[in-house]
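Subject: mismatched residue count in predicted assembly?

I count 291 residues in my input, but I want to confirm that the predicted structure covers every chain. Input:
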Amino acid sequence: MIPMDPAELSGFLDRETTQERRGEIQQLVAKTASLRAELQSLASADSQWRTAARAAAFPVEIHLDRERKFTISARRAAAFIGFCLAIRFAPKLADTLMLGLALNGVALVVVIAWVIAITRESELRRIASA
Amino acid sequence: MGVERQYALLIEPLLGQGAAYARAILRDRHNAQDAIQEAALRGLERFRTFDPSRPFKGWWFAIVRHCCIDILRRIAATQTEALDDFELPQPPGPDTADWENLSAAVRGLADQHREILRLRYFADLSYRELAEALGIPEGTVMSRLHLARKALQAKMGEEKP
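Triage response: the counts match. Full output below for your records.
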């Protein structure tokens, strides 16, 4: 009789034993009814678990971009600089010119922020889909 | 190849199993999604210190596990939900009675038994990866898993009318 640790039955079921040991356990299981019954019972629970695992899986989309905060702060910094420049030069400019400049400044800030966001996003998407 | 890209390539095939594992712990799809997202980011932050001679899957699932525990703690802080109340996701199919029996038996298991079974089946970890994820010697994995299975069998026997 080949001595066998009961835990090896789990190793056998999970294919985590060496090929040689697997053969020995297989022989032992073929000879011993109680071992056969135990293996069958373990295999049945194993199959139920695998069904549960399959049922639980779902597709996940992840974003590797914790630095998103940086993008937001860049936008804020750009807005703040734009605002300071407007305050600094406002008294020296005619109203109409000032309005035009302000609108252009805002547009520029938005475009810069948008370009930063798009660049980062496409880079992350490229990494994730690689 | 950049570190981010290398990391993304490694975790991409693990996301489905990660989701299943997190869902088994958290019993909620949205929380599971949050846990995986957080684990992906934490893993990336720690990836530079990862030792390539160790199994990556086990390493990453240890992070997923910790993220799930953090979420459970957050939930516990806001609700009075029992943390060890475990529910298996209901599979499609007619074996509802068997299913409820298994689910009830799992609830009665000790934490370490439940944990090793979840990692084995939901995360599909090998024995080497289980050792890495649980921080136990590889030799202990087989016996702990077997004890968990036997305990589950015994519980299932109790649950059967």
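Helices of chain B lie at 3-11, 15-26, 29-46, 56-78, 96-107, 111-121, 127-134, 138-159. Marking this ticket as 'not a bug'.
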